[in-house]
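Dear support,

I submitted the protein below through the web form. The confirmation email said the job was done, but the results page showed an empty box. After a refresh the structure appeared. I'm attaching both so you can tell me whether what I see now is the final result or a partial one.
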Amino acid sequence: MGYEWLHFNVETDKEGIVVATLTEKKVLTLGTIQSITHELEVLLGFANKSKKLVVNFAEVEFMTTTMIGALMRFDEQATNRNIRYAFCALQLQMMQVLTISQLRRHFPIRRDVTSACRFVKTEDESCR
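What the results page shows now:
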């Protein structure tokens, strides 16, 4: 079953993993980031039962670096709720920013939805 939110398409796979695809092509304004941040918080509640969540950035062409702060808050909240998550399909520009800022290792990032789902199903923290 799928749901369309303002900034995300959300589906739950047969194993209960919540897969949320960010549908914004360009994340540029503070208002958009605040709205996405709110929806990320709601997603954590949505994933509270399975404790497994994938956030897919495949449709995003560009994000400002301000979005990193929102992702850091998301990571903290997911950790506090014991939700295992992964980001996937981040564009090269964002991966470079995360690498330069030495935050790449902070987030579990996978190439695509399939590998992200495989990651959230494992219990091995060294996979991060």
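Response: this is the final, complete result; the empty box was a page-load delay. The chain has one domain: 2-121.
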